[in-house]
Amino acid sequence: MGKRTPLYEEHLALGGRMVDFGGWDMPVQYPAGILAEHEAVRQRAGLFDVSHMGEIDLHGERALQFADELVTNDCQKLEQNQVLYSPMCYEHGGVVDDLLVYRLEPGHVLLVINAANTEKDVQWVMERRRQLFPDVVAEDISGKTAEVALQGPKAQEILQSLTPFDLTKIAFFWAQPDIEIAGRRALWVSRTGYTGEDGFEVYVRPEDAVHVWREILRAGEPYGILPCGLGARDSLRFEACLPLYGQELDQDHTPLQSGLKYWVRLEKEHFTGIEPLRSEQETGGPKRRLVGFKLTERGIPRHGYPILSQAGEEIGVVTSGMLSPTLGEALGLGFVPAEFAQVGTPIAVSVRGRAIPAEVIKKPFYRRSGK
Amino acid sequence: MKTPSELRYTEDHEWLRPDGRSARIGITDFAQDQLGDVVFVELPEVGREVKKGEAFGVVESVKSVSDVFAPISGKVLAVNHDLVDKPELVNQDPYGQGWIVEIEFGDEAEVQSLLDAQAYGALQEGGH
Fold first, then answer.
1. Which helix (H) or strand (E) element contains residue A123?
2. A interface mutation test: which of B32, B34, B35, B37 has the most A CBs within 10 A?
3. Do B63 and A352 touch (CB under 8 A)?
4. What CATH number is associated with residue B63?
5. Residue B1: its pLDDT value, please?
6. What ipTM was predicted for this assembly?
Protein backbone atom coordinates (compact mmCIF):
# COMPACT_ATOMS: atom_id res chain seq x y z
CA MET A 1 0.00 0.00 0.00
CA GLY A 2 1.28 3.41 -0.94
CA LYS A 3 0.98 6.72 0.86
CA ARG A 4 -2.46 8.30 0.80
CA THR A 5 -3.46 11.94 0.60
CA PRO A 6 -6.29 13.25 2.82
CA LEU A 7 -8.50 12.95 -0.29
CA TYR A 8 -7.96 9.22 -0.84
CA GLU A 9 -11.50 8.27 0.24
CA GLU A 10 -12.95 11.01 -1.99
CA HIS A 11 -11.17 9.52 -5.00
CA LEU A 12 -12.60 6.07 -4.25
CA ALA A 13 -16.09 7.51 -3.78
CA LEU A 14 -15.83 9.30 -7.14
CA GLY A 15 -14.77 6.07 -8.87
CA GLY A 16 -11.14 7.11 -9.33
CA ARG A 17 -8.83 4.44 -10.70
CA MET A 18 -5.95 4.35 -8.26
CA VAL A 19 -2.35 3.78 -9.36
CA ASP A 20 1.04 4.06 -7.74
CA PHE A 21 2.78 7.36 -8.42
CA GLY A 22 6.12 7.89 -6.71
CA GLY A 23 4.98 5.83 -3.73
CA TRP A 24 1.54 7.48 -3.55
CA ASP A 25 -1.84 5.93 -4.29
CA MET A 26 -3.28 8.49 -6.70
CA PRO A 27 -6.18 8.54 -9.18
CA VAL A 28 -5.00 8.27 -12.78
CA GLN A 29 -8.54 8.99 -13.98
CA TYR A 30 -12.17 9.04 -12.91
CA PRO A 31 -15.06 7.38 -14.80
CA ALA A 32 -15.36 10.29 -17.28
CA GLY A 33 -11.96 9.31 -18.69
CA ILE A 34 -8.76 11.16 -19.50
CA LEU A 35 -10.03 12.76 -22.72
CA ALA A 36 -13.14 14.18 -21.02
CA GLU A 37 -11.10 15.42 -18.06
CA HIS A 38 -8.56 17.01 -20.39
CA GLU A 39 -11.29 18.74 -22.34
CA ALA A 40 -12.99 19.96 -19.16
CA VAL A 41 -9.80 21.77 -18.14
CA ARG A 42 -9.26 23.31 -21.58
CA GLN A 43 -12.90 24.42 -21.94
CA ARG A 44 -14.26 24.82 -18.42
CA ALA A 45 -12.58 23.62 -15.24
CA GLY A 46 -11.00 20.61 -13.59
CA LEU A 47 -9.99 19.87 -10.01
CA PHE A 48 -6.84 17.92 -9.16
CA ASP A 49 -5.62 16.51 -5.87
CA VAL A 50 -1.97 17.53 -5.71
CA SER A 51 -1.54 16.92 -2.00
CA HIS A 52 1.29 14.52 -2.80
CA MET A 53 3.51 17.46 -3.78
CA GLY A 54 6.26 18.17 -1.27
CA GLU A 55 6.71 21.44 0.59
CA ILE A 56 9.81 22.76 2.32
CA ASP A 57 9.60 25.83 4.56
CA LEU A 58 12.66 28.06 4.88
CA HIS A 59 12.77 30.46 7.82
CA GLY A 60 15.37 33.04 8.78
CA GLU A 61 16.80 36.36 7.76
CA ARG A 62 18.74 34.71 4.93
CA ALA A 63 15.94 32.36 3.77
CA LEU A 64 15.57 34.14 0.43
CA GLN A 65 19.34 34.19 -0.11
CA PHE A 66 19.45 30.47 0.57
CA ALA A 67 16.65 29.82 -1.94
CA ASP A 68 18.54 31.97 -4.43
CA GLU A 69 21.65 29.83 -4.00
CA LEU A 70 19.62 26.65 -4.48
CA VAL A 71 17.84 27.56 -7.71
CA THR A 72 18.88 28.87 -11.13
CA ASN A 73 16.19 31.56 -11.44
CA ASP A 74 16.50 34.93 -9.69
CA CYS A 75 14.78 34.89 -6.28
CA GLN A 76 16.16 38.26 -5.17
CA LYS A 77 13.80 40.05 -7.57
CA LEU A 78 10.76 38.48 -5.97
CA GLU A 79 8.38 40.70 -4.07
CA GLN A 80 6.40 39.50 -1.08
CA ASN A 81 3.76 36.93 -2.18
CA GLN A 82 5.34 36.52 -5.60
CA VAL A 83 6.05 33.03 -6.96
CA LEU A 84 8.65 31.81 -9.39
CA TYR A 85 9.36 28.61 -11.27
CA SER A 86 12.90 27.31 -11.35
CA PRO A 87 15.12 24.32 -11.88
CA MET A 88 17.40 23.38 -8.95
CA CYS A 89 20.78 21.98 -9.94
CA TYR A 90 23.54 19.82 -8.54
CA GLU A 91 27.06 21.24 -8.63
CA HIS A 92 27.72 19.39 -11.92
CA GLY A 93 24.75 21.18 -13.54
CA GLY A 94 22.32 18.27 -13.69
CA VAL A 95 18.86 18.90 -12.33
CA VAL A 96 17.83 17.87 -8.80
CA ASP A 97 14.23 18.93 -9.40
CA ASP A 98 12.09 21.73 -10.73
CA LEU A 99 10.05 23.66 -8.21
CA LEU A 100 8.06 26.71 -7.24
CA VAL A 101 9.57 29.30 -4.88
CA TYR A 102 7.07 31.36 -2.87
CA ARG A 103 8.40 34.50 -1.21
CA LEU A 104 6.04 34.91 1.73
CA GLU A 105 6.34 37.27 4.71
CA PRO A 106 9.87 38.56 5.46
CA GLY A 107 12.15 35.70 6.43
CA HIS A 108 9.81 33.02 5.07
CA VAL A 109 10.19 31.17 1.79
CA LEU A 110 8.23 28.13 0.65
CA LEU A 111 9.59 25.60 -1.84
CA VAL A 112 7.05 23.33 -3.58
CA ILE A 113 8.68 20.23 -5.00
CA ASN A 114 7.75 17.11 -6.94
CA ALA A 115 6.14 14.28 -4.96
CA ALA A 116 8.44 11.60 -6.34
CA ASN A 117 11.50 13.71 -5.45
CA THR A 118 10.48 14.88 -1.99
CA GLU A 119 12.85 12.68 -0.01
CA LYS A 120 15.82 13.37 -2.30
CA ASP A 121 15.12 17.11 -2.40
CA VAL A 122 14.76 17.42 1.37
CA GLN A 123 18.07 15.63 1.78
CA TRP A 124 19.73 17.93 -0.76
CA VAL A 125 18.31 21.11 0.77
CA MET A 126 19.30 20.01 4.28
CA GLU A 127 22.83 19.22 3.12
CA ARG A 128 23.24 22.59 1.39
CA ARG A 129 21.79 24.31 4.45
CA ARG A 130 24.36 22.67 6.72
CA GLN A 131 27.20 23.59 4.38
CA LEU A 132 26.21 27.13 3.39
CA PHE A 133 23.27 28.54 5.41
CA PRO A 134 23.28 26.90 8.86
CA ASP A 135 21.42 29.94 10.20
CA VAL A 136 18.37 29.18 8.03
CA VAL A 137 15.77 26.80 9.43
CA ALA A 138 14.50 24.32 6.84
CA GLU A 139 11.51 22.14 7.56
CA ASP A 140 9.78 19.49 5.47
CA ILE A 141 6.12 20.43 5.92
CA SER A 142 4.77 18.05 3.24
CA GLY A 143 2.74 16.16 5.82
CA LYS A 144 1.16 19.33 7.17
CA THR A 145 -0.23 20.58 3.87
CA ALA A 146 -2.83 19.37 1.44
CA GLU A 147 -3.16 20.96 -1.97
CA VAL A 148 -5.77 21.06 -4.70
CA ALA A 149 -5.36 22.62 -8.14
CA LEU A 150 -8.41 24.20 -9.76
CA GLN A 151 -7.56 24.74 -13.42
CA GLY A 152 -9.34 26.00 -16.51
CA PRO A 153 -10.96 29.15 -17.94
CA LYS A 154 -13.79 28.98 -15.36
CA ALA A 155 -11.46 28.45 -12.39
CA GLN A 156 -11.63 32.04 -11.18
CA GLU A 157 -15.43 32.27 -11.35
CA ILE A 158 -15.82 29.02 -9.47
CA LEU A 159 -13.33 29.83 -6.73
CA GLN A 160 -14.66 33.39 -6.42
CA SER A 161 -18.05 31.99 -5.43
CA LEU A 162 -16.36 30.42 -2.40
CA THR A 163 -14.30 33.34 -1.09
CA PRO A 164 -14.84 36.98 -0.07
CA PHE A 165 -11.31 37.78 -1.28
CA ASP A 166 -11.18 39.46 -4.71
CA LEU A 167 -9.28 36.88 -6.75
CA THR A 168 -8.54 39.32 -9.58
CA LYS A 169 -5.99 40.74 -7.12
CA ILE A 170 -3.95 37.55 -7.44
CA ALA A 171 -2.00 37.91 -10.69
CA PHE A 172 -0.33 35.08 -12.61
CA PHE A 173 2.45 33.65 -10.41
CA TRP A 174 1.38 35.56 -7.32
CA ALA A 175 0.01 34.15 -4.09
CA GLN A 176 -2.20 35.26 -1.22
CA PRO A 177 -1.77 33.75 2.24
CA ASP A 178 -4.51 33.11 4.75
CA ILE A 179 -7.67 33.68 2.74
CA GLU A 180 -11.02 32.12 3.38
CA ILE A 181 -12.11 29.39 0.97
CA ALA A 182 -15.49 27.73 1.62
CA GLY A 183 -15.41 28.88 5.21
CA ARG A 184 -11.93 27.51 5.94
CA ARG A 185 -8.63 29.37 6.15
CA ALA A 186 -6.45 28.40 3.20
CA LEU A 187 -2.72 28.55 3.96
CA TRP A 188 -1.96 30.05 0.55
CA VAL A 189 -3.74 30.44 -2.75
CA SER A 190 -1.63 31.08 -5.83
CA ARG A 191 -2.46 31.65 -9.48
CA THR A 192 -0.24 28.84 -10.71
CA GLY A 193 -0.65 25.41 -12.27
CA TYR A 194 0.63 22.68 -14.50
CA THR A 195 -1.91 22.61 -17.30
CA GLY A 196 -1.31 25.63 -19.53
CA GLU A 197 -4.62 27.14 -18.39
CA ASP A 198 -5.51 29.85 -15.91
CA GLY A 199 -6.11 28.47 -12.46
CA PHE A 200 -5.28 28.32 -8.80
CA GLU A 201 -3.41 26.10 -6.43
CA VAL A 202 -5.01 26.07 -3.01
CA TYR A 203 -2.94 24.93 -0.02
CA VAL A 204 -4.94 23.92 3.02
CA ARG A 205 -4.49 22.03 6.27
CA PRO A 206 -5.00 18.28 5.76
CA GLU A 207 -8.11 18.36 7.96
CA ASP A 208 -9.73 20.96 5.67
CA ALA A 209 -8.93 19.17 2.40
CA VAL A 210 -12.10 17.07 2.07
CA HIS A 211 -14.38 20.04 2.77
CA VAL A 212 -12.60 22.35 0.32
CA TRP A 213 -12.45 19.63 -2.36
CA ARG A 214 -16.18 18.91 -2.07
CA GLU A 215 -17.15 22.58 -2.00
CA ILE A 216 -15.13 23.37 -5.14
CA LEU A 217 -16.70 20.43 -7.00
CA ARG A 218 -20.15 21.56 -5.84
CA ALA A 219 -19.56 25.19 -6.83
CA GLY A 220 -18.12 24.05 -10.15
CA GLU A 221 -20.97 21.73 -11.05
CA PRO A 222 -23.02 24.34 -12.99
CA TYR A 223 -19.85 25.08 -14.99
CA GLY A 224 -19.24 21.44 -15.91
CA ILE A 225 -16.24 20.92 -13.64
CA LEU A 226 -14.72 17.43 -13.48
CA PRO A 227 -12.38 15.89 -10.94
CA CYS A 228 -9.21 15.10 -12.87
CA GLY A 229 -6.53 12.48 -12.38
CA LEU A 230 -2.85 12.16 -13.16
CA GLY A 231 -3.59 11.06 -16.72
CA ALA A 232 -5.14 14.39 -17.67
CA ARG A 233 -2.52 16.23 -15.64
CA ASP A 234 0.13 14.61 -17.82
CA SER A 235 -1.62 15.21 -21.15
CA LEU A 236 -2.34 18.85 -20.24
CA ARG A 237 1.19 19.64 -19.10
CA PHE A 238 2.55 17.83 -22.17
CA GLU A 239 0.61 20.01 -24.64
CA ALA A 240 1.83 23.11 -22.81
CA CYS A 241 5.39 21.65 -22.96
CA LEU A 242 5.81 21.93 -19.19
CA PRO A 243 8.62 19.53 -18.37
CA LEU A 244 8.11 16.47 -16.16
CA TYR A 245 10.99 15.49 -13.90
CA GLY A 246 12.31 12.06 -14.83
CA GLN A 247 11.39 12.61 -18.47
CA GLU A 248 12.36 16.08 -19.74
CA LEU A 249 14.47 16.86 -16.66
CA ASP A 250 16.96 14.70 -14.80
CA GLN A 251 20.39 14.72 -13.24
CA ASP A 252 21.99 13.76 -16.56
CA HIS A 253 20.77 16.84 -18.42
CA THR A 254 21.32 20.51 -17.64
CA PRO A 255 18.32 22.83 -17.60
CA LEU A 256 19.82 24.52 -20.68
CA GLN A 257 19.62 21.21 -22.53
CA SER A 258 16.03 20.85 -21.35
CA GLY A 259 15.15 24.20 -22.93
CA LEU A 260 14.78 26.15 -19.67
CA LYS A 261 17.27 28.92 -20.48
CA TYR A 262 14.74 31.60 -19.54
CA TRP A 263 14.66 30.20 -15.99
CA VAL A 264 18.47 29.99 -15.71
CA ARG A 265 19.92 33.37 -14.75
CA LEU A 266 23.59 33.06 -15.60
CA GLU A 267 24.08 36.76 -14.75
CA LYS A 268 23.40 35.94 -11.08
CA GLU A 269 26.43 36.20 -8.85
CA HIS A 270 26.12 32.56 -7.91
CA PHE A 271 23.88 29.53 -7.64
CA THR A 272 24.71 25.88 -7.19
CA GLY A 273 25.72 24.57 -10.59
CA ILE A 274 26.38 27.95 -12.22
CA GLU A 275 29.95 27.15 -13.32
CA PRO A 276 29.19 24.18 -15.63
CA LEU A 277 26.11 25.96 -17.00
CA ARG A 278 28.12 29.11 -17.81
CA SER A 279 30.75 27.02 -19.48
CA GLU A 280 28.13 25.12 -21.49
CA GLN A 281 26.56 28.40 -22.62
CA GLU A 282 29.92 30.03 -23.45
CA THR A 283 31.07 27.11 -25.58
CA GLY A 284 28.29 27.36 -28.12
CA GLY A 285 25.33 26.24 -26.03
CA PRO A 286 24.04 22.77 -25.28
CA LYS A 287 25.19 20.00 -27.62
CA ARG A 288 21.95 18.14 -26.98
CA ARG A 289 18.60 19.86 -26.84
CA LEU A 290 15.04 19.05 -25.99
CA VAL A 291 12.85 19.50 -29.06
CA GLY A 292 9.18 19.19 -29.83
CA PHE A 293 8.15 17.24 -32.90
CA LYS A 294 5.12 15.86 -34.68
CA LEU A 295 4.77 12.65 -36.63
CA THR A 296 3.77 13.31 -40.21
CA GLU A 297 2.46 9.76 -40.79
CA ARG A 298 0.28 7.47 -38.67
CA GLY A 299 1.70 6.38 -35.32
CA ILE A 300 2.14 7.67 -31.79
CA PRO A 301 5.53 8.45 -30.25
CA ARG A 302 5.95 7.13 -26.71
CA HIS A 303 8.42 7.60 -23.87
CA GLY A 304 11.57 5.61 -24.65
CA TYR A 305 11.10 5.21 -28.41
CA PRO A 306 14.29 5.97 -30.42
CA ILE A 307 14.50 9.20 -32.44
CA LEU A 308 16.19 8.74 -35.80
CA SER A 309 17.80 10.99 -38.37
CA GLN A 310 16.34 10.89 -41.86
CA ALA A 311 19.20 8.53 -42.71
CA GLY A 312 17.93 6.14 -40.04
CA GLU A 313 20.71 6.71 -37.52
CA GLU A 314 19.63 6.77 -33.86
CA ILE A 315 20.08 10.34 -32.59
CA GLY A 316 18.00 10.48 -29.42
CA VAL A 317 15.09 9.23 -27.43
CA VAL A 318 11.49 10.31 -26.88
CA THR A 319 10.95 11.67 -23.35
CA SER A 320 7.16 12.14 -23.64
CA GLY A 321 4.74 11.53 -26.47
CA MET A 322 1.07 11.06 -27.15
CA LEU A 323 -1.78 11.84 -29.46
CA SER A 324 -2.52 15.39 -28.34
CA PRO A 325 -6.16 15.48 -27.20
CA THR A 326 -6.55 19.18 -28.02
CA LEU A 327 -4.64 19.29 -31.31
CA GLY A 328 -5.33 15.77 -32.59
CA GLU A 329 -1.72 15.33 -33.67
CA ALA A 330 0.85 12.74 -32.64
CA LEU A 331 3.35 14.91 -30.76
CA GLY A 332 6.48 14.25 -28.80
CA LEU A 333 9.36 15.74 -26.85
CA GLY A 334 12.88 14.36 -26.89
CA PHE A 335 16.58 15.09 -26.73
CA VAL A 336 18.50 15.33 -30.01
CA PRO A 337 21.93 16.72 -31.05
CA ALA A 338 21.84 20.52 -31.49
CA GLU A 339 22.16 20.25 -35.27
CA PHE A 340 18.73 18.57 -35.38
CA ALA A 341 17.05 21.06 -33.05
CA GLN A 342 15.93 23.67 -35.55
CA VAL A 343 12.21 23.99 -36.27
CA GLY A 344 11.42 22.27 -39.57
CA THR A 345 14.19 19.68 -39.35
CA PRO A 346 12.97 16.33 -40.68
CA ILE A 347 13.57 13.44 -38.28
CA ALA A 348 11.85 10.11 -37.61
CA VAL A 349 10.68 8.08 -34.65
CA SER A 350 11.06 4.34 -34.45
CA VAL A 351 7.60 3.01 -33.60
CA ARG A 352 7.77 -0.75 -32.98
CA GLY A 353 10.70 -1.02 -35.36
CA ARG A 354 9.22 1.14 -38.11
CA ALA A 355 10.66 4.58 -38.87
CA ILE A 356 7.75 7.03 -38.90
CA PRO A 357 8.65 10.42 -40.42
CA ALA A 358 8.50 13.41 -38.09
CA GLU A 359 9.31 17.10 -38.08
CA VAL A 360 10.71 19.37 -35.37
CA ILE A 361 8.07 21.97 -34.46
CA LYS A 362 7.80 24.97 -32.18
CA LYS A 363 7.17 24.64 -28.44
CA PRO A 364 4.84 24.92 -26.68
CA PHE A 365 2.39 22.85 -28.72
CA TYR A 366 -0.53 24.54 -27.01
CA ARG A 367 -0.84 28.09 -25.73
CA ARG A 368 -4.12 29.35 -24.35
CA SER A 369 -5.61 32.31 -26.16
CA GLY A 370 -5.34 35.71 -24.54
CA LYS A 371 -2.18 34.78 -22.63
CA MET B 1 -18.63 -5.55 -17.16
CA LYS B 2 -20.43 -7.34 -19.98
CA THR B 3 -19.29 -10.85 -20.90
CA PRO B 4 -21.65 -12.20 -23.60
CA SER B 5 -22.24 -15.91 -23.19
CA GLU B 6 -22.00 -16.83 -26.89
CA LEU B 7 -18.35 -15.70 -27.17
CA ARG B 8 -15.03 -17.35 -26.40
CA TYR B 9 -12.31 -15.54 -24.46
CA THR B 10 -8.58 -15.51 -23.74
CA GLU B 11 -6.61 -14.72 -20.62
CA ASP B 12 -5.27 -11.69 -22.51
CA HIS B 13 -8.80 -10.23 -22.45
CA GLU B 14 -9.72 -10.83 -26.06
CA TRP B 15 -12.97 -12.24 -27.36
CA LEU B 16 -13.70 -14.40 -30.35
CA ARG B 17 -17.02 -14.94 -32.15
CA PRO B 18 -16.83 -18.09 -34.30
CA ASP B 19 -18.96 -18.17 -37.47
CA GLY B 20 -18.31 -21.24 -39.59
CA ARG B 21 -14.60 -21.42 -40.37
CA SER B 22 -13.86 -17.85 -39.40
CA ALA B 23 -14.15 -15.70 -36.31
CA ARG B 24 -14.29 -12.04 -35.43
CA ILE B 25 -11.91 -10.96 -32.71
CA GLY B 26 -11.77 -7.94 -30.42
CA ILE B 27 -10.89 -6.90 -26.90
CA THR B 28 -13.29 -7.40 -24.00
CA ASP B 29 -15.37 -4.83 -22.17
CA PHE B 30 -13.07 -5.35 -19.18
CA ALA B 31 -9.99 -4.69 -21.37
CA GLN B 32 -11.36 -1.49 -22.90
CA ASP B 33 -12.36 -0.23 -19.46
CA GLN B 34 -8.88 -0.91 -18.09
CA LEU B 35 -7.21 0.79 -21.06
CA GLY B 36 -9.34 3.90 -20.95
CA ASP B 37 -9.97 6.10 -23.99
CA VAL B 38 -8.65 4.28 -27.07
CA VAL B 39 -7.03 6.77 -29.47
CA PHE B 40 -5.26 4.54 -31.99
CA VAL B 41 -5.56 1.00 -33.36
CA GLU B 42 -2.87 -0.59 -35.51
CA LEU B 43 -4.38 -3.28 -37.72
CA PRO B 44 -2.60 -6.22 -39.39
CA GLU B 45 -2.54 -6.63 -43.15
CA VAL B 46 -5.31 -8.65 -44.71
CA GLY B 47 -3.96 -12.01 -45.88
CA ARG B 48 -1.36 -12.27 -43.13
CA GLU B 49 -0.94 -15.71 -41.56
CA VAL B 50 -0.80 -15.47 -37.79
CA LYS B 51 0.13 -18.01 -35.15
CA LYS B 52 -1.77 -18.40 -31.90
CA GLY B 53 -0.21 -16.08 -29.31
CA GLU B 54 1.47 -13.83 -31.89
CA ALA B 55 1.09 -10.05 -31.43
CA PHE B 56 -0.68 -8.93 -34.59
CA GLY B 57 -2.23 -5.60 -33.68
CA VAL B 58 -1.89 -2.74 -31.22
CA VAL B 59 -4.45 -0.78 -29.24
CA GLU B 60 -3.25 2.52 -27.80
CA SER B 61 -5.05 4.59 -25.20
CA VAL B 62 -4.10 8.09 -24.11
CA LYS B 63 -1.51 6.69 -21.74
CA SER B 64 -0.73 3.13 -22.77
CA VAL B 65 0.14 0.77 -25.60
CA SER B 66 -1.18 -2.80 -25.64
CA ASP B 67 -0.53 -5.61 -28.06
CA VAL B 68 -3.41 -7.61 -29.46
CA PHE B 69 -2.49 -11.30 -29.52
CA ALA B 70 -3.93 -13.82 -31.96
CA PRO B 71 -6.19 -16.10 -29.89
CA ILE B 72 -5.96 -18.76 -32.59
CA SER B 73 -3.81 -19.49 -35.65
CA GLY B 74 -5.13 -18.60 -39.06
CA LYS B 75 -5.30 -16.10 -41.89
CA VAL B 76 -6.48 -12.50 -41.51
CA LEU B 77 -9.60 -12.27 -43.71
CA ALA B 78 -10.68 -8.73 -42.84
CA VAL B 79 -9.84 -5.84 -40.55
CA ASN B 80 -12.15 -3.19 -39.14
CA HIS B 81 -11.20 -0.08 -41.13
CA ASP B 82 -13.72 2.00 -39.17
CA LEU B 83 -11.24 1.97 -36.29
CA VAL B 84 -8.78 4.10 -38.26
CA ASP B 85 -10.97 7.18 -37.87
CA LYS B 86 -13.05 6.01 -34.92
CA PRO B 87 -10.82 4.12 -32.49
CA GLU B 88 -13.32 5.04 -29.76
CA LEU B 89 -15.63 2.32 -31.13
CA VAL B 90 -13.47 -0.09 -29.13
CA ASN B 91 -14.67 1.66 -25.96
CA GLN B 92 -18.23 2.27 -27.06
CA ASP B 93 -19.09 -1.13 -28.49
CA PRO B 94 -16.27 -3.61 -27.78
CA TYR B 95 -18.24 -6.72 -28.87
CA GLY B 96 -19.92 -5.11 -31.89
CA GLN B 97 -18.69 -2.17 -33.97
CA GLY B 98 -15.42 -2.23 -32.06
CA TRP B 99 -14.30 -5.60 -33.49
CA ILE B 100 -10.71 -5.59 -34.68
CA VAL B 101 -10.02 -8.47 -37.11
CA GLU B 102 -11.63 -11.48 -38.71
CA ILE B 103 -9.55 -14.64 -38.92
CA GLU B 104 -10.07 -17.81 -40.94
CA PHE B 105 -8.98 -20.62 -38.68
CA GLY B 106 -7.71 -24.08 -39.56
CA ASP B 107 -8.04 -25.84 -36.25
CA GLU B 108 -11.45 -26.03 -34.62
CA ALA B 109 -9.83 -27.52 -31.51
CA GLU B 110 -8.00 -24.23 -30.87
CA VAL B 111 -11.34 -22.45 -30.69
CA GLN B 112 -12.76 -25.07 -28.34
CA SER B 113 -9.77 -24.69 -26.02
CA LEU B 114 -10.53 -21.00 -25.36
CA LEU B 115 -12.32 -19.89 -22.21
CA ASP B 116 -16.10 -19.73 -22.12
CA ALA B 117 -17.91 -16.75 -20.65
CA GLN B 118 -18.17 -18.33 -17.22
CA ALA B 119 -14.46 -19.14 -17.01
CA TYR B 120 -13.53 -15.68 -18.29
CA GLY B 121 -15.89 -14.05 -15.81
CA ALA B 122 -14.21 -15.98 -13.00
CA LEU B 123 -10.83 -14.79 -14.26
CA GLN B 124 -11.89 -11.14 -14.02
CA GLU B 125 -13.20 -11.63 -10.52
CA GLY B 126 -9.86 -13.16 -9.65
CA GLY B 127 -8.59 -9.62 -9.84
CA HIS B 128 -6.91 -9.00 -13.17
1. helix A118-132
2. B37
3. no
4. 2.40.50.100
5. 84
6. 0.89
